[in-house]
Amino acid sequence: MTFQYPILVAVAVLATVALFILYFRMHRRGPALRAGSGLRRHLPQVMFLSAAALLLLAVARPAATLPVARAAGTVILAFDVSNSMKAQDVQPSRLDAAKSAATEFVRAQPDSVNVGIVAFDQGALTTQQPSEDHDATVAAIKRLQVNGGTSLGQAILASLTVVAGKPVSLPDAGSGRPEPDLGYFGNATIVVLSDGEDTGGPDALAAAGLAAKAGVRIETVGVGTVEGATVEVDGYQVATSLNEDLLTQIAQTTAGNYHRAENAQALHDVYQSLDLRLSTERKPVELTGAAAAIAVLLLTIGGILMTTWFGRIL
Q1: What's the first-to-final CA gap in the chain, in angstroms?
Q2: φ/ψ of residue 253, rounded to 5
Q3: Domain count for the chain
Q4: Are residues 105 and 147 located together in one domain of the fold?
Q5: Which CATH number do you get for residue 256?
Q6: Is the pLDDT of residue 217 over 60?
Q7: Structural domain boundaries, residue 35
Q8: Is 77 helix (H, G, I), strand (E, B) or coil?
Q9: Do residue 6 and residue 142 come from a single domain?
Q10: Mind spelling out the 3-state secondary structure of 262-275?
């Protein structure tokens, strides 16, 4: 335990000792204080004196270093911005609904959660580094526009690059090279928002396996409907539907969860259900309020006992 004003601790100790000495001297001389059994004679007064000691101690601003649980860490929101995300089977469009719900999610996070943005189509681009500046993150979300195909594997690797702080890639098939050792990031979560249509490498499940080894959980959010819709791409009508199987496999590879969001409200509900891991850190916690509260409680109990046993405050 530490004190902001250590000198006042000595003052509190001396004052407490003086109060107890004064009490026992008064007890020898005062017949009213000697009435009743030993417990009744001393308990209320001892409570009063203990309360006074706690109040004096509270003035010194005590604090203790305690384990405190909090939602903390890094969340990467990986947005699918491929052409299929302009489908309107989720109103006003898949991407717009995802952006709206993500904005609500970001604004609900405490400052202890750093949120970053990765946009992916056939490649992937970090549009906002993880930051506690949630206003900047929301601004980055609002700038997202649809473009190109879809590479879920590239989205995961780009997100891991942000988490690990160094380029992350899978070894080429048949190269014999081992997978990179990223370290361990148990307080990081990647949230992939996509319709699940994967039109290009690298392998999404292999990338998810790399995330799992690094302790990074992936939550996948399926945006769209199983029945699907059509979108116009370069003058052609292209059918697009939700691929839940792949999104589920990606999430399960990292012990994460797949969430279906077939409409805007469901997407908002998904963000409410996302389980950010709690981390525990030791930090100084001021105990002034606790000491004062205990002192008031002792004064109250002492007063009740004294009026009950003696009919008045002695």
Answers
A1: 35
A2: -60, -30
A3: 2
A4: yes
A5: 3.40.50.410
A6: yes
A7: 2-66+284-310
A8: strand
A9: no
A10: CCHHHHHHHHHHCC
User: In terms of DSSP bridges, do strands 236-240 and 229-233 run parallel, antiparallel, or are they unpaired?
Assistant: antiparallel
DSSP state of 2: E
Instruction: Please check the confidence at residue 194 and state whether its pLDDT lies above 60.
Output: yes
pTM > 0.70 = no
Residues 28 and 153 in one domain: no
For the sheet containing 2-3, what is the strand order?
A: 2-3, 62-71, 278-286
* Closest by CA position to 203, among listed 249, 243, 240, 244: 249
User: Rounded to an integer, what distance in angstroms lies between the CA atom of residue 111 and that of residue 100?
Assistant: 20
The winner for highest mean pLDDT among 37-46, 53-62, 86-95 is 86-95
Q: Which of 112, 68, 64, 71 is nearest to 282 (CA)?
A: 68
- In this structure, the answer to whether residues 191 and 239 fall within a common structural domain is yes
Same domain? For 103 and 211 the reply is yes
pLDDT value at position 49? 78
Q: How confident is the model at residue 274 (pLDDT cuts 50, 70, 90)?
A: low
Hey, is 312 helix, strand or coil? coil
DSSP H helical ranges for the chain: 6-29, 38-59, 94-108, 134-142, 152-164, 204-213, 244-253, 264-273, 288-310
Q: Which of 22-31, 126-135, 292-301 has the highest mean pLDDT?
A: 126-135
Averaged confidence pLDDT in the chain = 83
Residue position matching structure tokens 């805007």 = 264
Looking up tokens 């989720």 gives: 90
Alpha-carbon gap, residue 83 to 150, rounded angstroms: 8
